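In the design runs reported in the main text, the only information available to the sequence generator was the tokenized backbone. The following block is the verbatim input for one such run; it is reproduced so that readers can re-run the procedure and compare outputs position by position.
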């Protein structure tokens, strides 16, 4: 297919969506449900793929020092292979058992083979992906902003869940997002390119500086390097001007959640809490309503 015919196809699709809002929203819902199902795979498999890679790097550099590691617990996999199976009985999941939300409901939340419970998290991720995508589509309408905003929304969902599970923000997601944000803004899709470049640098260096100041004072590491990269991502997508709002929202929510967990004794005081999810939520909110919130905040700050 030539570039011209591809451009024509996209133009026809855009026109069709502009003429039928119902078709536009239904398309977003069905696509995002499928993406949500894929995100479940990414969240489960990507950390295992990284562990497998780390294991072989250790074997290469440390040789006999890691010979006692049980290699059977670290298996090779990709996002597409092997086929999805039940973690309890290894039953291969058929295509009709993998329809987003619907399959879980029809199976009554149980494996068709061993009848063990299937975590409700899977359909909740699919449903959340669809709802968040619908909010994005409604906010930006039929535009390239919607296309790219959906992309970063899906990536943020994966990053949030991986960080919650493993205290990890994989470079395999954050670094491509960083470069993509700069490329997306070459033509000023969200912000001028200059603001994007400065935002990427300021986003990284601000938390990097806080990290080292905290470490010099306390001797402890207050956050991971993945947090620097994630804030740099938002700087590249949203510009440096909105980073103070983003950090403020993430810090306030993180502090409230952290104190609540300690009060209700679900966390020890010295137990680490991932900061990535708060950055991701604050960044997503800023993507949609950042300018409005920042204007409101500055207006009330002046009044005070």
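Verbatim output:
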């Amino acid at each position: 297919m030539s570039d011209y015919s591809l451009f024509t196809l996209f133009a026809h699709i855009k026109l069709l969506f502009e003429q039928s809002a119902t078709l536009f929203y239904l398309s977003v819902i069905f696509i995002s449900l499928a993406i949500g199902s894929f995100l479940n795979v990414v969240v489960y498999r990507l950390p295992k793929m990284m562990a497998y890679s780390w294991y072989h790097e250790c074997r290469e550099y440390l040789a006999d020092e890691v010979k006692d590691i049980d290699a059977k617990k670290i298996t090779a996999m990709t996002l597409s292979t092997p086929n999805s199976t039940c973690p309890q009985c290894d039953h291969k999941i058929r295509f009709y058992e993998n329809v987003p939300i619907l399959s879980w409901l029809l199976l009554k939340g149980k494996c068709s083979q061993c009848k063990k419970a299937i975590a409700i998290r899977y359909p909740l991720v699919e449903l959340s992906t669809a709802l968040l995508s619908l909010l994005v589509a409604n906010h930006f309408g039929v535009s390239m902003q919607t296309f790219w905003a959906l992309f970063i929304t899906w990536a943020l969902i994966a990053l949030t869940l991986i960080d919650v599970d493993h205290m990890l923000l994989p470079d395999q997601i954050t670094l491509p997002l960083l470069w993509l944000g700069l490329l997306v803004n070459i033509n000023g899709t969200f912000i001028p390119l200059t603001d994007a470049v400065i935002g990427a640098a300021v986003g990284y260096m601000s938390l990097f500086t806080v990290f080292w100041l905290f470490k010099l004072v306390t001797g402890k590491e207050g956050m991971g390097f993945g947090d620097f990269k994630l804030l740099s991502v938002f700087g590249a997508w949203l510009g440096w001007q909105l980073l103070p709002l983003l950090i403020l929202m993430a810090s306030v929510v993180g502090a409230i959640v952290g104190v609540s967990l300690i009060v209700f004794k679900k966390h020890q005081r010295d137990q680490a809490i991932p900061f990535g999810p708060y950055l991701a939520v604050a960044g997503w909110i800023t993507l949609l309503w950042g300018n409005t919130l920042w204007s409101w905040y500055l207006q009330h700050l002046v009044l005070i």
